[in-house]
Amino acid sequence: MRAIGKGSLASILAIGLHITRIILSISLVGIVVMLLIIPLLPSLAEMLSDWGDLEVADEGDEKLASLNVYFSVAHAFATTAVMLFVVNRLLEILKTLRLGSPFVKENADRFRAVGYALLIGEGAKFAFGFFSMIFRADIDINSSFISWLAIIAVFVLAEVFREGARMKEEQDLTV
By 3-state DSSP, what share of the chain in percent is helix, strand and coil, each rounded to 5? Predict the structure, then answer.
């Protein structure tokens, strides 16, 4: 299978990443709406209990449950935002591959940005894990060695692309 051009692996990957970007964008909008609505839920529950025979749970339990849900949604926001950022950078990298010139300085910068985004995502996991312990939120935080290895690999790829771009530029100047 060809790497460049119509029907190439890069084109197929780009289609998949475009679909992923659409799904992540829609998810991110939904998560932002939830982040805006969750703080209003206790007031809404109180209003509904005034209108009917709805029994509201103990206020302390209600606040803890609301905080638990809010932290879970905030964690989903951070994860989705990082994924969307990474997908956008990968699409930009694939675009240069389809054009036949992947070894450009911009791709090295894009890989480095992906690495930093993944670092921020892993850091957010630790932050949410810390807050989940403090506020007794039920957030499943799992960071694995393979995640850290992937982050290191992305930074190595950034340097490989940076060196490849330098060599290409040097070769273009000698011809």
Answer: 80, 0, 20
